[in-house]
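Bench log. Compound arrived from synthesis this morning; before running ITC I wanted a structural hypothesis for how iron/sulfur cluster sits in the protein. Inputs:
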Amino acid sequence: MSNSNKIFLKGMDLPELEVWCKLNNFLPFRAKQLYEWLYCHGSEDVSVMTNIPNNCIEIIQEQCILSTLELISKTVAQNKKTIKFLFKTINGNFIESVSMVDEADRHTVCISSQSGCNLGCDFCATAKMGLLQNLSTGEILDQLIIIRRLSGLAINNVVYMGMGEPFLNYDNVIKSANILNNKKGFNISAQKITISTVGIVPKIKRFIEEKNKFGLAISLNASNDLTRNNIMPINKKWPIADLINMNKMYVKNNKRGKITFEYVIMDGINSSVSDATELSRILNSAKCKVNIIPYNETDGKYKRPSDTTIKEFIDTLYLYNKNFQILVRWSNGLDIDAGCGQLAVVQ
Ligand code: SF4
């Protein structure tokens, strides 16, 4: 059977595997066994699935695809703790993922949900690629399966902050996050799985209404619509007031969780004391977190502010803050272009 006619077993959730088993006359408990082999063990070779009968192994070998990504390269940062992976999808498009191990040996992996992106954020390297494809559930999960195998380390945190806008590939992103969270899948706590969006409001609403327990981050990056319109075209469709309303809806529906507003701070764009004052004012309306991310320079158009400017910005936030928690993310892996907003593959 040619590859184009084969079935993607990797990426199926349990109900889908049960349907596949039924169609092939296997008992439903085989679906659970396959699920564990695919995700808990990350098996790409059906012959190692020791509790699967030979007739099932033969059908999988003949009709199914178990491996969706090809590893092209691996680049290790000077700190040895951050590694960028370049993968090729079955369609021949490229994606990148980043593995980061912190001082406490916690392993965080930043994954892509699309190859490229068509939302055109002016400061983002991925935007230069345009949109090449939405990733399948299997392609999203294979980034983690391959990184887990190569690093030999369990994965503690997953962030959907690599290439692409996750909420423009909503179904595959949520399905993959559920498999990551499932005890027989990756067994990663829902609070340790974070989906980051630029603010696709109908999908944020759906995410809240479906009562998803995963972390939610919104890339805000400006304290007023004028600035945000200039750097993030999506703001013309869903301006800041809509995002603040989504935060209020989230707080109403989640007694404990908080949305994280990410703020990539860029010199002379959104880094002044008055920007910080304005940001405090708009975020004080409902509980949330704000994550300040000093910009990782890509092509020279935008600059990272000096440490003094960043400190003044943060001090101003602390001065006016009543309702939100402030975090600062100093990215690792800048020497390999693996920092936030730096992922891009020019084909
Ligand atoms: S920041 Fe995110 S949404 Fe904007 S262009 Fe880059 S990948 Fe797309």
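What the model suggests: The first helix runs from residue 14 to 23. The radius of gyration is 21 Å.
ITC booked for Thursday regardless.
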